[in-house]
Amino acid sequence: MIEVPSVSMIQWTENDTPQSALWRSENGSAPPKRVVVADDTLTADTAYRLACEGTGLLWRGDFQNARQLLLALARRIDRKPRNGHKADKNKPPSQPSPNGGRGAIEAFHLHRQAQAQRARVLGMLLLPFDADHNVPLRRAPDVRQACAEAYGPVSDESLAYVASLRELLGLIGAHEWRKKGVEIPVLGNPPNNRIHPWYGVFSPVRGEYLTLVAQAPLPRALSSNSLAFDIGTGTGVLAALLARRGIQRIVATDQDARALACARENLTRLGYKQVQVVEADLFLEGRAPLIVCNPPWVPARPSSAIEHAIYDPDSRMLRGFLGGLAAHLEPNGEGWLILSDLAEHLGLRTRSELTTMIESAGLKVLSKIDIKPHHPRTLDSDDPLHAARAAEVTSLWRLGV
Predict the structure, then answer these.
(1) In terms of CB atoms within 10 Å, which of 69, 74, 178, 363 comes out highest?
(2) Beta strands in 165-215 (DSSP E)
């Protein structure tokens, strides 16, 4: 279940007067306990020291200068120590490679630790927001629509608030994705092949798993009952792809409010009236000859809403899908599990553990279709997890009872 960030307040002193405002953080992080007012006179080195100490910097200067300061902070975090010099004690842990003599599991956890500490330091640069989502700073862009899409529309009860610049830039990026959309070649020719992801809903930028669903042979059982379930629909892209393949009725489920609204909007825009989007934790009642699921691939704890599409603690969704599949498949029906083996290369799950889950659920593997990912990170040798990413394979497991 996606956790809704709790409401909290942030406090600081300005001009010798105590101040407070609503604190917003989509990843649920607590507000800094200590906050100082900062402006264009603050040097990057001082800002870096304060941020590493956990001091929030509430910006009152020029907005574009705040963006430059954030870049300067990132450079200091990412800077590698020169030979013969000690590493900065405030710098997050280095990011080891699985090929560097440490185990893959340790490399993964150190990488996640470094990511979390990097996010914490960069999240200390804070911005004020008016109740209508306006940023009252010089040269600030109009971000009201981007904020409304993530935080909700303005109401009579809306309050001024504080959020991090880093989070705002994420909101702006998500707004552009939502406005422009993502071209999905397997959905046909432009312009009617775009999916528009909402903030907090994972964008279907990795096309290899869509290729698998587009090319896998449909179950014969569909000929007598043209019905499919899409479990954990997200943006609705797989439901749209099943509809494009000619399935006459699709029921797409999700439990996240943003995903449900996002999927409905995308499917309406694409004209797929045969898809019904329903709120549910995995399955509804009933059976279908085809049930498709693309669960999160890595059994680890997410640190933000968007990461729920990647990280799944203890493989909860994977276990839930496999455990309920047999009871919801029609005779001779198929369950399509789309899953990367990245977790296996990271040492977080073995192949035997996966096959044991399948067998324990009363399922058998009818066949497996593999494809190599082709996203840029598979070629990035500087990525601390490069060895695992280079070996990764994404598979469509055709499962039967």
Answers:
(1) 69
(2) 182-183, 194-195
